Amino acid sequence: MKNFLHLLSVAGLSLLANNGFAQTPASPYKVLDTQQVMGTGGIDYVLADNDARRVYVPRGNQTYVFGLDDHKSMGVLTNIGGHGIAIDSKSHHGFSSSNPVGMFDTETMQKIKTIDVKGRPDGILFEPFTGRVFVFSHAAPSITMIDPKDGSVLGTIEVGGAMEQAQSDGAGKLYVAVEDEKKVAVVDLKTFKLVTKYDLGATAGEPAGLGLDAKNHLLFAMCSGPNVCVVLNAEDGKVLTTLPIGNGSDGGGFNPNTMEAFSSQRDGTLTIIKESSPTSFAVEQNVQTKTGCKTCSLDSKNNRIVTVCTERAPQAAGEAAPPAGGGRGGRGGPGNLDVLWVGR
Predict the structure, then answer these.
(1) Which among 96, 225, 226, 290 is most buried, taking Cβ atoms within 10 Å?
(2) CB 170 within 8 A of CB 214
(3) Rounded distance, CA 136 to CA 120, Å?
(4) Contacts of 214 (CB under 8 A, 6+ apart)
(5) What's the predicted TM-score (pTM) here?
(6) Cα distance between residue 152 and residue 143, in whole Å
């Protein structure tokens, strides 16, 4: 009877895992450290530069820089702001997703110039297969390509829809979350043309965060309203499963070292999804972070996730209260910028 009960218990746990319910790991994730600096303006993306071991956080018309390992402030890039940052380690040039795009020297931390682009830049990515910087827009043109050596605009790719986070497989395919269409776009980087768009299905929300397991050709689309992660085959777009995540995802990723996808949410949670095999996925943990920490980036050396949010300064007498949630770009008034390191 004891052995029989033990088998039932194991089977029950397996069933829970396969159904996507959270299974707390033996060594759970937690917030390891938080750094705070005062400032003004909204925020969106955060970038962990794994080569130079830095963290970049644009806020308003400035970008704050921290050490990825020691977490200490390294200074501020003035007149460089926007939604996100991309870094080309070879040229030591950085770029901000703003209009115009800001270009800076990562060694001197000084602005080089601005680059005129069209559309409404949002996401940004340095893509290793082409060696180019790609700026993703919420209006036409969908994607603008920039040469990181001199900042020249090399061309555009029209996809349609509101472009959000993107991932490259490093072998010639680019995947982009198309938020308003509830799809993931596939772009061929050899021809610089749209190949297709994968529909996430009727139960999906609007995708903003995106993770990619390049080895197993799997995409993890992090959606809001409903709040789910849609796992799909990157080669044919077949939806494999849908898992629950927290409320208000705006960023995600995948760590091949731990075989875990992750999604940061505005409600102050970080959802960790375990890939046990290319066909088996389960929510492993929902980590408590801070309200508003909706975007994230991976420290691939230390297997840690960096997420950011802002805390508004105490309301002055007679001042109107800010809108709940602070808007899509984060709270824009004066207050703390919080940078959180999450790991085991």
Answers:
(1) 96
(2) yes
(3) 8
(4) 169, 170, 171, 256
(5) 0.89
(6) 14
